[in-house]
Amino acid sequence: MPAADTEVDVLIVGGGPVGLTARALLQRWGVRTMLVEKHSELSPFPRSRLVNARSMEIFRQLGIAAEITANAFPREFGRIRFRDTLYDGDFATAAMVGVNAPIPESPVLGVATSQDRLEPTLLAAADAPVRFGVELVDLAEEPESVVAELVDHRNGGGVRVRARYVLAADGANSTVRQRLGIDTTGPGAMAAVTTVVFDAELGGWCADQPAGVYFTAHGSFLPLYPEGGWAWLAPTPEDADRADWAGLVSRALGADPGTGPGVRADVLRVQHWVMNAFVAERFHHDRILLAGDAAHAMPIIGGLGMNTGISDVHNLCWKLAGVLHDWAGPGLLETYATERQPVAHLTLRQAVANTRLMFQAQSLRQEQLSSGEAAPAHIELPWSERYFAQLGLVLGVAYRSAAVLVDGGPPAPVPSEAPEPSESSEVGTDYVPTAEPGHRMPHLWLARDRSTLDAFGEWFTLLTPDPTRWERQAAPPWPLRVEPLAEEQAERCGLSPDGALLVRPDGHVSARWPGRPPNDSALARALAAVTGSPASP
Fold it and tell me: Over the stretch 58-90, which tens digit does the pLDDT of each residue have?
C-alpha cells in the first residue's frame, strides 16, 4: 500500500461533543491525534440540551466547567413543563435533578445549554489538528495500524492517514460502523422529527416560569440561549418540503393572552432528523473503537445520549494512552466494550421509558382537550420527580471487567449481559454512593473547594490515611499519585487507617484494601492486573 500522507496515534472521526472531548482527553495524555469532520464547520443547530453532573465532572477535570456554566442557562431552567400551548399555565412539571439545584453527591451542577454553545468550548480545550470538510470513505486494517482513506471536500483531493487506532464518533449513521458491518439492536427509528430554530417576540413571561423544555400538545419549545432564541421540535409533516414553517410555529405557539393573535416566528434554520434508539452489537473491532451515537443512539427525552458518549471516551481514552505509552497491555482495550456496552443497554431502556412516559402525559392531556375538558390545575405525572433524576445512571454506573479487582484480589466477575429490569422498575433513578471496586469514587471534600474527584487526572490515584506506607510501594511504569485521606473519610469508604483505594484515571475504583496490604508488592500487582501490563511487580 502507498505510504500514508499523515501518521498519528489516534484518528478521531467525528467533530461533535464526543469526538471533541476525546481529543481534549487524549492531548492531556500526550497522545498524537487528528480529528476529521465531514461538515465544513461545527454544527449550527442546538441539538443536545443537557450537560449532566457526570459530564460536568469530566469537564471540571479538563478545566472548562466554569466556562460552560457561564455560557449556559441559570439553574432555574433545569425543569421541564407541560402545557397546552406555550402561553398556558403548567398542567405538570418536573425538575431535572442535578441541574436545577446542587446535589450533595457531586461538587458540580449540570447545566441546560445548547450543543452549538458547548462545542466551541470543547474545540478550544485542545490544539491537536482538526480538519473540517474532510470525510472518511474507507478503512484498511493492518497488523499494527489502520489506514483511513479520506476525501477533502474543499478541494476534492484524497488524503491517506495511518493511525495506531481509530476512534469513531461519527454519529448514529456512522460510516465506520457500516464499513465494519456491525449491526445494531433496539427499537431503531422511533420518530421523524423536525427542529425549527426561530426568533420571536415572546415577551418576558418565561422569566417567571423558566424551563429547559416546554412540552405542549403542539410540539416542544426550547429556549436556546440566555440572551434569546428558540427552537420548536415537532413530528416531520408529510409535505415537509412545502411546509410553511413560520406559520406552523406561530400556530403551535398559540395566542398570546395579552395581545390576542399568535406571534409571527422568524424562522432561521430547519433540520429534519430521525429519533433513533439502538445499541451497536460490538463497540470494538481490532484497532477501531466506536463511541457516542456511533455505538448507541438514544431518544432525546432525558438528555442521556450525548452524556453517555462523553462517559464512553472518558472510559476509553486513558486505556488508549496506557497501551500507546506501553504501561498497559493491549487487552486493556477489551474492557472498554465489556464496561460500556451494558451501560448503553441500561441507558437505552431508560431513554425509551422516558419517551413513552412523556408521550403518556401528552396523550392524557390531548384526550382531555378533545373531550372539551378545561385544563386541570395539575395532572398526575406517570412518574415521580425522581424519574428524570436518573442519578443511578449518571453517577451510579458500576463496571465489572478485568480492569476492576475485588478488594485487591482477582478481577471482578463479568456479567454475561446487562440485567433485565422489570417493566415497573425505575431504572437508574437511585444512587447510593459507595467506594466498592467498579464504582465511581464518591465525592468527598478533601479541602475547601477540593473534592476527591479533583485528585484524579492523567494518573492512577491512591487514596489512603497512611500515605507513607503506600508510597514505598509505588513503582514504575504506571503513572500514580498518592493522596492523603482523613480517617473520617476513610471510614466512610470502608477503610481502616492502614487501608487504601486505587482509583483509575476515569474516577472509578479499581481496587480496595480495607486494611493493611498483604505484602509490599500488593499495589504493583494490582496495577499490573488492572492494566494488563507485562511489567513485573
Answer: 999 999 999 999 999 999 999 888 888 888 888
Of 57 and 205, which is predicted with more confidence?
A: 57
Taking phi first (over 0 means left), then psi (-120 to 50 degrees means alpha), and beta for anything else, what does residue 520 get?
Answer: alpha
CA-to-CA distance for 292 and 309, rounded, in angstroms? 4
Joined together, the cell numbers standing for residue 372 give: 372539551
Mean pLDDT of the chain: 88
Q: Write the DSSP assignment of 381-439 as a string of letters.
A: -SS-TTTTT-HHHHT--B--STT-BSTTSSBPPPPSS-----TT--TT-------STTB
Rounded Cα distance between 469 and 517, Å, is 10
Least Cα distance to 200 among 283, 268, 115, 291 occurs for: 268
Q: Measured between alpha carbons, how far is residue 141 from residues 161, 166, 527 in Å?
A: 12, 10, 30
| Whole-structure pTM value | 0.92
Q: Report helix angle 17-28 to 305-324, nearest 10.
A: 30
Give me the DSSP letters along 103-119: -TT-SS--EE--HHHHH
Of residues 4 and 166, which shows the higher confidence score?
A: 166
Which cell goes with 536?
513485573
CB of 245 closer than 8 Å to CB of 216: no
Q: What mean pLDDT is predicted for residues 180-190?
A: 92
φ/ψ region of 257 (left if φ > 0, alpha if ψ in -120 to 50, else beta) reads alpha
Average of per-residue pLDDT across 425-436: 75
Assign 477 to helix, strand or coil: coil
Lookup: cell for 163: 493511525
Q: From CA 280, how far away is CA 415, in angstroms rounded? A: 18
If we measure between CA atoms, which residue out of 396, 509, 398, 497 comes closest to residue 460? Answer: 509
Dihedral over Cα of 483, 486, 489, 491: its sign? positive
**What is the rounded CA–CA span in Å between residue 369 and residue 376?**
11
- Tell me which residue of 1, 109, 5, 132 sits closest to 59, measured CA to CA: 109
Torsion sign (Cα): 170, 175, 177, 180: negative
Q: Which H/E stretch holds residue 488? A: helix 487-492
Q: What was the pLDDT predicted at 380?
A: 64
Q: Tell me which long-range contacts 239-246 makes (C-beta under 8 A, separation of at least 24).
A: 240/194, 240/272, 245/196, 245/198, 245/270, 246/198
pLDDT at 427 over 80: no
Smallest CA-to-CA distance from 426 within 463, 466, 392 is with 392
DSSP state of 3: P
pLDDT band at 491 (very low <50, low <70, confident <90, very high): very high
Residue 319 in grid coordinates? 486505556
346: CB partners within 8 A, 6+ apart: 393, 418, 419, 421, 427, 428
Phi then psi for residue 66, to 5 deg, are -65, -40
Answer whether 378's CB lies under 8 Å from 302's CB.
no
222 vs 50, 253, 254, CA distance in Å?
A: 11, 12, 15
Task: Provide the pairing of β-strand 266-280 with 296-297.
Answer: antiparallel
